[in-house]
Amino acid sequence: MEKNGKIGALGATGCSQVQERLFRYLSSQRIHPALLFLGPDKEVKFQVAKGMAKFFFCLKKNKTAFCNTCNNCQRIEREIHPDVYFFKEESEEALKIETVREVIGQMRVSPIEGPYKICVIEEAHRMNAAAANAFLKTLEEPGEGRYFVLTTTQPGSILPTVSSRCIEFVFRPENEGLTLAEDTRKKYSDLLKEVSKTRNFSQLTASLEEKEEALQFLQFLQSEIHNSLIAKEAKKERSGLFDNISSHELTFKFEAVVTLEGQLRSNANYGLMIESLLRNHFSGV
Ligand SMILES: [Zn+2]
User: Fold this and answer.
1) Residue 6 falls inside a structural domain
2) Same domain (yes/no): 198, 115
3) CA distance 134 to 32
4) Are residues 19 and 151 in the same domain?
5) Does the residue 244 lie in any domain?
6) What is the pLDDT of residues 145-161, one digit of tens each?
7) Quick one: CA dihedral 18, 120, 215, 197, positive or negative?
8) Distance, CA 65 to ligand 1 centroid (Å)?
9) CA angle centred on 129, ends 128 and 130, rounded to 5°
10) CA–centroid distance, residue 269 to ligand 1 (Å)
11) Could you tell me the CATH number of the domain that includes residue 33?
12) Helix crossing, 42-57 with 15-26: angle to 10°?
């Protein structure tokens, strides 16, 4: 695993497969000290972060799972383990420099029970620039046995200085692939092919009559990108919509789509937002 690299988009059916993949990574020789979990579902990412902490500390773990019953697993579940910190999102407020200094201070102290110390920061895009800058050095070299997990529903709002120091894990919504009927897929696929050539993106957004439909279209993009990424990784031949695009590029596009989905859920003007996404990321695909 190259430092500051991207693991790619994970999880064919959501949480359990991302977790499995994550644990395989954690069982590898060298673990990057800063992981970034991104995707639209806040709770799923938090549970997987918790699972990761259990995996580190579990007294009865095997190669791919923690037991969830031992003393350590139980204390992490109840969020009272002394070497696992959770900075949860309590409000939409920005994460201030004071909070980040508190995090840094706590992580600097030696583990109480050891040998690890884990800090989970939820919705890390709330970090303002001053807080992020104060965090960079610790994020890069947190010290022996220290690990950070940052989660976000808006990866586009994370400062690049922060995300470039993390290994990214991308979470897709649960069951997403199953909810899209084949004719819906074909409709979106044909439309996208057409408008990405003519660059008449408003033609596509005009066909999305409700916000639900707009979200469905974003799920379609995510699942197409995801399938391409999986095929590339397995070195399988495939003739999907995005198969000519590199994995690196696809991961960026995936992030843009996930970010927009997060924004769309709290914003009414979906037409313009999707049009701008297509213009920036899907011209001439
Ligand atoms: Zn356990």
Assistant:
1) no
2) no
3) 20
4) yes
5) yes
6) 999 999 998 888 888 88
7) negative
8) 9
9) 95
10) 46
11) 3.40.50.300
12) 30
